[in-house]
Amino acid sequence: MNQSFAPVTTVPRDVRDMDGEDRPQQRAAIYARTSTTKQQLGYSIDEQVRQCVDRCRALDWTVAFVYRDEAMSGKDTDRPMFQEMLTRAKHGQIDVVVFWKIDRFSRSIMHAVQLEKEFQEWGVALHSVTEQIDTTTPSGQFNFRNLANTAEFEREMIRQRTKMGHAARAMEGKWPNASPPLGYEATPDGRLQIVESEASIVRRIFKRYVEIKSMADVAEELNEQESGHRSWTTASLSTTLRNQLYIGRYSVGDIERKEESYRIVSDDLFDEARSIRTRFSGDESHSRTRMRDKRKTNRVERILEQYRDWIN
Asked: Which InterPro entries is this protein grouped with (predicted)?
């Protein structure tokens, strides 16, 4: 739990940091975190807090709050004491957050950079006891900006390498992730192979849509036939009907190629479905398909059921 500290014993006001810059007295919030309940000495919460308190004494900062998150992951900021610290920071009750090491505060340098932007808006600085991270002074802010630029450069390099990797896989007709569309499964070498049980559903979707010209009605039929194994909506049907992979046109990123082995439906069936799907686009001469009686009855029953629930 967090606890309020009485002002600690201070050293003379002319204490300076390693850069020779004057440090005004500030209200410090110490943040400590462990990932497990059995942390090695030197990484324990008590040891983290002790070193942070010592640093605050040396810099003539008043320790206003101590926040401890025990056995909490640093992967996100949804930590109880971290959130309470954020609230106090937003309300101007903290001037600087002191932590033992950056990985106790955030999951990565890039994450710390993102958090620092928020703290900067609230007028709150960051200070690490064991690293060259200190935004309480102009020189410290300059160093942190360099760190942020380096992290941004590394992120861009990772993004470029990832993009190149996807492009290389796409050139070989390989799927970029472990979740291929309905009708396919990924093989060990990364390519796709058709799953006939799912491909039959894809063909049925196209054929029924061409026949009855209503995504809502097709979705209703599928939900009744699938018996709850998959929930279909007009949105999911639209995604399926638009997917050109079903006619062997592979497109990932900037790479487009023909993969005939991926074909599930014919070009004629796909084009007919597309024509029906776009039949109202900019053309008022076509009249919309009349809602089927069964669908109309179901809709009325749902509305009546909602009304009965409301009045009761």
From this structure: DNA_bind_recomb_sf, DNA_bind_recombinase_dom, Resolv_N, Resolvase-like_N_sf, SSR_resolvase
